[in-house]
What does this fold into?
Amino acid sequence: MTMKLAEALTMVQATPPHAPPLEIALLCGFTPLHLETFLRAQLCRLFPGRFPRVQIGLYGDLLGNLERVANVAAAIVVIEWSDLDPRLGLRRLGGWEPSRMPDILNEVRRSCDLLQQCMAAVAQNIPLIACFPTLPLPPVSFTPAARASEFTLELRSRVASLGAAVSHDPAVRIVDPQRLNALSPAQRLDVNADLSTGFPYTLAHASVLAELLAGLVQNPLPKKGLITDLDDTLWRGILGEVGVEGISWDLDHHSQIHGLYQQLLRSLAASGTLIAVASKNERALVQQAFAGRDFIVRESDVFPFEVHWDAKSESVARILSTWNISADDVVFVDDSPMDLAEVKAAHPGVECLRFPRENPQAAYELLERLRDLFGKERITSEDSLRAASLRSNATLQHGVNQSSAGASEEFLRHIGGKLTFSRQKQPLDSRAFELVSKTNQFNLNGRRFQETEWQEWLKAKDTVMIAASYQDKYGPLGKIAVIAGDLSNSDSSGKRKLRVRTWVMSCRAFSRLIEYECLQWLFSKLDVEEIEFDFLPTARNAPIQTFLQRVRGAPAEPGCRLLRSQFMETCPALHHAVEELPNG
Amino acid sequence: MAELESRLVNCFAVVFPELTPQEIPSVSMGSLASWDSVAGITLLSVIEEEFNLSISPDDVAGLVSFELILDYVRRVASGARA
It folds into this structure.
């Protein structure tokens, strides 16, 4: 985990200086010195192909540094006690006598208020990564070291309040002290370095902190689905041997860790993670178990169940097909190393993790790892719809497949599809950004945006962003499509043209002619005569290639165009109820 | 001792990548423009990490050339008081 300073320097030097820059601000009141080096190295690791440039501010002026931050993709603010009151640092001699404590508390309160304002202002424009004091307090308080004083508890309480206040802002990401404590060494303060150079951290602490900070800059998207085994994983025991009443997940049977695993799966399912089962078992027996025992994870949390005696890799293949997501987005948990290896060989992208049933400590660490892999910033309304919509999608696909070719339209006409369009350009619409960042199949060009790049683009006057939400009699799918582009006059006649630069649609929304409805809406509501597509073929965007070919009558190609008249000729009959959100 | 010198050359190479291994043994703060205060602190931190030693603030001011640093590291490595 800990990187050596020499390694960090070597990594930074190995980055091509002509690569596209990645501008990050590192704001602190101390000399950032090696923290800056470690941060650059970690950014090089997480953003290959970019040249990280770390802007630093002035020594001892954290608030001013926050106020001056500009032209960066993200800002990192690292706050230490001396930033809240210089008397809490080692480089100033303002006095530690008890009579000064009330004034120090007042000064810390004032600093926290100012920091909250400055941080909120920065977070209006760019992601802000924050870290609250990581160093021990100096021996200011008069109590013995083992006894927490009212003074130190008050100080920590004020900082905790600041963290809680700024955490409400979706653009603020705060380093979790529990994670930092687990990774960083006990010896964090380097008194020697602080007194001689103004850099207060030991190298090991700076290395760990930089890794966590860079990870929050990268802000990786969570995995989407978890496939779990049953025997000796979801529960203790082999169902086929011990029967429905013989399996357990409780303290009495020394199998509580399986109950904790179920509890985590229930939580993940409720947060929008897809859960499936791949088990070598008798289907009827598993159905009997779910019907007869009171599991913490519910049967309705799981879709699909792949329960039979075929290879696990085949089960995983079918689950991936049902979910219609990439293997890279999936974690497979099983107690059998052989099954894990078999799945890994067939699906290298799947993250395969062993459930160590014989070792509760290791199993608990697995739970922590799973929480990390599926961790997300916030729960959206779409998260609660995902599993249900997959089920209804399977029903719909079944209906479409059962229909004869001529009857599909009839089938779709009777499902009561309703599309709601919104053209509000909300830079912090996290669901829209998630769709653009994770959709692969119906994706115009596979282009991914940095969060700040996306926000900057949406702010431009001629940029339009349309988001579509969908529901039918099988239930709501939530926000499922995003189209963004630039509006302009195409020629001297003044006819308007739309250049679509991004168009993504969730695979959950396929087979409903929603893509046609989107184009129809663009032509009519934006009053454009022509749409130009920034199309690029990717390894996985065959669905949009096929659609563009169908609607244009010619293969999709970069810069391909579609006239309103051309679209009207090829568009099938559409039966959705369409509405636009007010203020859209 | 040759191994110690070679490790010290590597430390210098990491901090001053513009130098060739042949140039490093004769380098000093006065002869190398990029050896400023920040580079000096970085160099000493890399050396502390590489040789698992702690350089006293009182000694830092005298460590201004490869030769002097090599001598310092040799004395510390041999257990002598630096």
